[in-house]
């Protein structure tokens, strides 16, 4: 133990120890091919390079393993970044400038990445297993490698799950946009009287519905109500100008008529269901409150009993106060005693 | 939500056909200016004839004409046309037309097939129907049921709110009554104590 007693005595220099041990181990390694000691020393020194010939293969295994694991981790990180970008894209899609192509490209890329990463993780696991089966590793190394593989697998799984969520969100968004588009492309067979649909010449409707719907949708939020009222005022003059504006569109309505009836029936049925559930909830609440009422009742009875008892006590007290003859005698005695004492002292 | 006119016409199913013949006519043009009313009536007649001519038998059609929706239902050559505004639900419109058609057939049987010229006599049922069915709920039972169910739901919601309030009040009552019973117990104990303690004095 060389303790440097010079300026800084806060550390101990054990370099000699270290070099002696490595010498010793090198000799023992070449005979017994044990890796554990080297590895642990490598860990202790934090980067000490030991090149024992017999241990090269297992070290190579280990570093190969580490390299692959780090590559996979890197790949997973990249994929999750791309996934975040995809999620942002999917969330912000509006009806009009839909970056469908980009989204699809990105989706394909991410899918490829995920499959590649999957296969890489499987390979890694195989390596880890084969390594563990060879006897020349310590239990620490094997647990370490299995932990690493499990960690990578978990991360990959979470990435895949996020990917799936993003895809479902995208399909929902698409559905919502479809609905909205249907709502705003004003074909005549629509029941939902949408006051925001401007009354334009419907002859162009089928061809230009997509180009019609954006302007009404975008512009009408500000100008819809004055427009609508103006239209109403114009109705009176317009029947006279019919020839110029006559627009007619025959829409086959049989199907939608039946469908609308079916839909209405469904609505009625579901409303009735809801009403039923509301009633049951109501019943539950009322019964719960009934229990509260019972509790209140008990409390009041308790109070009544207590007050009656107290009243009885006070009556007894009153009686004992008001009619105690013995009390009078006692007072008399006390007075006479005082008189006696007084007389004694004076006379 | 307004019905402006109801027309019953006889449609020939021949494609070269003459214009359909009007069998009954009821219009409500009160919201037009006085001098426009006649023109509007003529216009209604014309459009009604055109639409009825173009409605194939046993089919329902809806045509958007300026601010009106013109609904027509052709059954076996008897065609009922209704002029409604855009807010009037389409389904109710067709149930109105159905009702009018059934009523007409009940009243007049098949005699309408022989009529060749526009009949100008008013049919009181049609006028009544026009006023009655201004509210789509009258014609369409489903709509009425839906409306009543919605009202019931609102009432139930209010009921549940008031039951919740009642619950809160009951809660406060429970607390007060338990306080009261505790206080009365203390009172009783005090009374007993004053009674037990000084029997001498």
From TrEMBL, chain A:
Q: Name one Pfam family in it.
A: SNARE
Q: Where is the T-SNARE coiled-coil homology domain?
A: 255-317
| Span list, region Disordered | 179-251
The UniProt entry, under CDD domains, shows:
SNARE_syntaxin5
Please note every region of biased composition (Low complexity): 203-226
In terms of superkingdom, the source organism counts as Eukaryota
What GO molecular function terms would the record report? SNAP receptor activity; SNARE binding
One GO CC term on file: SNARE complex
Q: Which UniProt keywords apply?
A: Membrane, Protein transport, Transmembrane, Transmembrane helix, Transport
The biological process GO terms on file are: endoplasmic reticulum to Golgi vesicle-mediated transport; intracellular protein transport; vesicle docking; vesicle fusion
**Composition bias, Polar residues:** 182-192
Which family is annotated?
Answer: Belongs to the syntaxin family.
Protein name stated in the entry: t-SNARE coiled-coil homology domain-containing protein
Organism field:
Tagetes erecta (African marigold)
From TrEMBL, chain B:
Write down the InterPro entries for this protein, in alphabetical order: Longin-like_dom_sf (IPR011012), Longin_dom (IPR010908), R-SNARE_YKT6 (IPR045848), Synaptobrevin-like (IPR001388), V_SNARE_CC (IPR042855)
The UniProt record lists the Longin domain at 7-109
Q: Which GO terms describe its cellular component?
A: Golgi apparatus; plasma membrane; SNARE complex
Q: How does it sit in the membrane?
A: Lipid-anchor
The record's subcellular location field reads:
Cell membrane
Q: Which residues are in the V-SNARE coiled-coil homology domain?
A: 141-201
Q: Which GO terms describe its molecular function?
A: SNAP receptor activity
A Gene Ontology biological process annotation? endoplasmic reticulum to Golgi vesicle-mediated transport
Q: Does the keyword Protein biosynthesis apply?
A: no
Classify the main location: membrane
Keywords of the record, alphabetical order, are:
Cell membrane, Coiled coil, Lipoprotein, Membrane, Methylation, Palmitate, Prenylation
Q: Which Pfam families match?
A: Longin (PF13774), Synaptobrevin (PF00957)
Subunit structure, as described in the record: Interacts with SYP41. Core constituent of the SNARE complex required for membrane fusion at the trans-Golgi network.
The text of the family note is: Belongs to the synaptobrevin family.
- Give the protein name, as stated in the record: VAMP-like protein YKT61
Q: What is the lineage of its organism?
A: Eukaryota, Viridiplantae, Streptophyta, Embryophyta, Tracheophyta
């Amino acid at each position: 133990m060389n303790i440097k007693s010079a300026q800084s005595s806060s550390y101990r220099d054990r370099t000699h120890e270290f070099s002696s041990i490595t010498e010793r181990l090198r000799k023992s390694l070449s005979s017994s091919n044990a890796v554990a000691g080297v590895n642990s020393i490598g860990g202790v020194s934090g980067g000490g390079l030991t090149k024992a010939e017999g241990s090269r293969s297992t070290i190579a295994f280990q570093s190969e393993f580490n390299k692959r694991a780090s590559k996979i981790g890197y790949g997973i990180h990249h994929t999750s970044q791309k996934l975040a970008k995809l999620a942002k894209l999917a969330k912000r899609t509006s009806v009009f400038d839909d970056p469908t192509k980009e989204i699809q490209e990105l989706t394909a890329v991410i899918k490829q990445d995920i499959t590649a990463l999957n296969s890489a993780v499987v390979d890694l696991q195989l390596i880890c297993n084969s390594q563990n089966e060879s006897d020349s590793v310590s239990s620490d190394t094997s647990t370490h490698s299995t932990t690493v593989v499990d960690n990578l697998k978990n991360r990959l799984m979470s990435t895949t799950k996020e990917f799936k969520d993003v895809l479902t969100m995208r399909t929902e968004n698409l559905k919502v946009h479809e609905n909205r588009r249907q709502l705003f492309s004003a074909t005549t067979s629509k029941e939902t009287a949408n006051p925001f649909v401007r009354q334009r010449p419907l002859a162009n409707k089928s061809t230009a519905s997509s180009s019609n719907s954006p302007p009404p949708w975008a512009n009408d939020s500000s100008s819809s109500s004055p427009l609508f009222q103006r239209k109403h005022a114009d109705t009176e003059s317009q029947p006279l100008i019919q020839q110029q504006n006559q627009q007619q569109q025959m829409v086959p309505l049989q199907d939608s008529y039946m469908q609308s009836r079916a839909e209405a029936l469904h609505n009625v049925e579901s409303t009735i269901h809801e009403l039923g559930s509301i009633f049951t909830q109501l019943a539950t609440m009322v019964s719960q409150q009934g229990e509260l009422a019972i509790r209140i009742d008990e409390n009041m009875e308790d109070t009544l009993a207590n007050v009656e008892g107290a009243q009885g006590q006070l009556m007894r007290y009153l009686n004992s106060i008001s009619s105690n003859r013995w009390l009078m005698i006692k007072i008399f005695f006390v007075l006479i005693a005082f008189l006696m004492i007084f007389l004694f002292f004076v006379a | 939500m307004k019905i402006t006119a109801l027309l019953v016409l006889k449609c020939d199913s021949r494609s070269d056909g003459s214009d359909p013949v009007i069998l009954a006519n009821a219009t409500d043009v009160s919201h037009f200016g006085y001098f426009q009313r006649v023109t509007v009536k003529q216009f209604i007649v014309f459009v009604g004839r055109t639409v009825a001519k173009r409605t194939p038998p046993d089919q329902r059609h809806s045509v958007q004409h300026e601010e009106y929706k013109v609904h027509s239902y052709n059954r076996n050559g008897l065609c009922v046309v209704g002029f409604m505004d855009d807010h009037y639900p389409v389904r109710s419109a067709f149930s109105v037309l159905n009702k009018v058609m059934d009523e007409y057939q009940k009243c007049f049987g098949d005699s309408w097939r022989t009529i060749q010229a526009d009949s100008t006599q008013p049919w009181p049922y049609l006028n009544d129907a026009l006023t009655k069915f201004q509210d789509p709920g009258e014609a369409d039972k489903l709509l009425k049921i839906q409306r009543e169910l919605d009202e019931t739901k609102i009432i139930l919601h209010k009921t549940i709110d008031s039951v919740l309030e009642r619950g809160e009040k009951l809660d406060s009552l429970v607390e007060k009554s338990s306080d009261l019973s505790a206080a009365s117990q203390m009172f009783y104990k005090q009374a007993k104590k004053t009674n037990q303690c000084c029997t001498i004095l």
